[in-house]
Write a structure and sequence with these properties.
Structural class: alpha/beta
Largest sheet: 6 strands, mixed
Distance between the termini: 36 Å
Helix content: 40-55%
Number of strands: 9
Strand order of the largest sheet: 1-2-3-5-7-9
Shape: globular
Strand content: 5-15%
Number of helices: 17
């Protein structure tokens, strides 16, 4: 293996660690290929009864895909190579989801984007007090992928839409409530958890081992905001979502405010809603419009693979669009935090754009048809 991942097998545990701590374990194309080889090799390896997946360093499991590498593909017009990166990544994510042996993912620290793609579909997903989980794609003029739309679509109520559009970061309690994690284990107990997994009496019961270390985090802020988030983010369009957020934040008593079970006089909730509306007005109108449709359609899809295929159609399209390049430039390359979106406003987005992109298969799919 390269110096970007480390792999070991001992006591029936296959342990693979993302090992780019200086880059918050961001996933390069080579890492995706190497991880695929590891998981394929362990599938039928009698020496491996379960797999532990974690990240090096204390800052995070993985900050996501290597956005700078993606930017180089885009700037160099190497979109074919970028599409192969995403195909390989999605196949790996699906492999982990369907893996015949339990995969225990330790989502300690920052776990975002591609990191969620690896850990979020594992059989046992562990968060800690340091976990910060998000699908932050709209901040760079992109859309949630790596099966993120599948997870977001299954969050309670409209929480997934809020998380997707606003790129909201979850703590451990939020991640558990939204369905992105299964257990909370304090970071200081992780070494003991790993020891217990290696010493387990029954190779088929890692979930029971994890439960021995499971604790209850504090309350979920997302859960507490569920009523007004549902009311606002159930609106049919981005424009109306923003309008409902403004109405709630302003404490209006007109017909729109009757949607809100929470008192509009709650200052913390009103401030939260106002900030959410402000943020939406700074993000790519195209990315927001497409993301809203993607998450809602994912609710109707039969499985993760179908969601990944839908996401791939979107991703392949976004590679050709100016907002992704501009978003990465502004947030990651130049870091001026001042992207110039095209179009600049929601009014400039074609009403049928999202449906058209979602319904159009331009490039070869992730899983070619056997027909």
């Amino acid at each position: 293996m390269s110096d970007q991942i480390s792999v070991s097998v001992a006591d029936g545990v296959g342990h693979v660690t993302l090992d780019r701590p200086q880059a918050l374990n961001a996933l390069s194309y080579s890492m995706i290929r190497e991880l695929t080889v590891v998981f394929e090799g362990w599938r039928d390896d009698a020496e491996v009864g379960l797999v532990v997946l974690d990240g090096a360093g204390e800052r995070g499991f993985s900050a996501g895909g290597d956005v700078r590498e993606l930017y180089e593909y885009i700037v160099g017009s190497d979109h074919g190579e970028a599409r192969e990166f995403f195909r390989s990544e999605y196949r790996l994510d699906a492999m982990i989801a369907r893996y015949p042996k339990p995969v225990v993912a330790i989502m300690d620290g920052i776990t975002m984007g591609g990191g969620v793609g690896l850990a979020g579909h594992a059989a046992i997903r562990v968060v800690t007090e340091r976990s910060r989980v998000a699908m932050p794609e709209t901040r760079i003029g992109f859309t949630p992928d790596v099966g993120g739309s599948w997870l977001l679509a299954r969050a309670p109520g409209e929480l997934g839409v809020h998380l997707a559009l606003n790129s909201r970061t979850m703590d451990a309690a939020d991640a558990l409530h939204a369905g992105f994690a299964d257990s909370f284990v304090p970071s200081e107990r992780l070494p003991h958890l790993l020891d217990a997994l290696a010493e387990r009496a029954d190779p088929g019961s890692p979930a029971e081992v994890v439960m021995l270390f499971d604790e209850t985090p504090g309350p979920s802020a997302l859960a507490l905001a569920r009523d007004w988030i549902d009311a606002c983010y159930s609106a049919p369009t981005i424009g109306e979502i923003i309008a409902r957020l403004r109405a709630f934040a302003d404490g209006r008593t007109d017909a729109s405010s009757s949607r809100f079970p929470t008192s509009p006089l709650d200052p913390a909730a009103r401030a939260y809603a106002a900030a959410a509306a402000d943020e939406l007005e700074t993000l790519s109108p195209t990315a927001l419009t497409v993301t809203l449709e993607s998450v809602r359609r994912a609710r109707t899809l039969p499985n993760l693979e179908a969601a990944l295929e839908q996401e791939f159609r979107l991703v392949a399209w976004f590679l050709e669009q100016p907002d992704l390049r501009e978003g990465i430039r502004a947030q990651v390359v130049d870091k001026d935090r001042s992207p110039k979106w095209n179009p600049l406003t929601l009014d400039g987005v074609d009403a049928g754009l999202a449906a058209r992109v979602l319904d159009t298969q331009v490039h070869a799919p992730v899983w070619p048809s056997e027909d």
